[in-house]
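[Solved] Which block belongs to which protein?

Original post:
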Amino acid sequence: MSTFTRFAYADVFAGQYKDRPTFIQSLLGRLQIEARHDGWPGTAIVDADWIEKTGQPPMAVIQLMPGNGDVSVADVRMFLVEKRRKQLKLIAQEDAA
């Protein structure tokens, strides 16, 4: 294998993608094609982020590593939900201290 992890990021341009799942699926598709070229048997999620800033289009970042299956849009969504829960829990702990 020539690469240990792969990542992709992109902005959502107006009209280019009809919704978030389509946008995420296009990023995953590009990553998984490159992973197959590297000889990976499948992919697993390392990190993901969804960034929204006022006045700018939303941006997604996804990082994958070799795995046994293929990461889906639902996997990315659950990863982001769990990541946000952990962030909120840390904030609540800091506020309580």
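(Second protein starts here: sequence line, then its structure tokens.)
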Amino acid sequence: MSEESIAAAVHRRWRLRLAIAVVLMALGALASTAISAGYGESLVVPVLLWVGVVCIVMAWRSVPHGVRDSERPAMARSAIWTVLGLLAYVVGPLLVSRF
């Protein structure tokens, strides 16, 4: 396999995984929003879930087109957005439920 085909495969695989995560997280955020609105509860947790979804979308958009050294800043941006998204989606609601 050539370097170009490896880079394309990594790009496709990472974007596909992030797209699946976006869909699943958005479904969870939508359900949480509907339940919170239906019962008249605070919308703090659904907002945090949607912030997490937006961060993962940003990670999806910043996935580099390859794995070359010149793509390292884009890899770092994508990783940072992924971590921020997971923090907002998982840790944020846990902290809200504690306090």
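Accepted answer:
You had them paired correctly. Confirming on the second one: Helices lie at 3-39, 44-61, 72-98.
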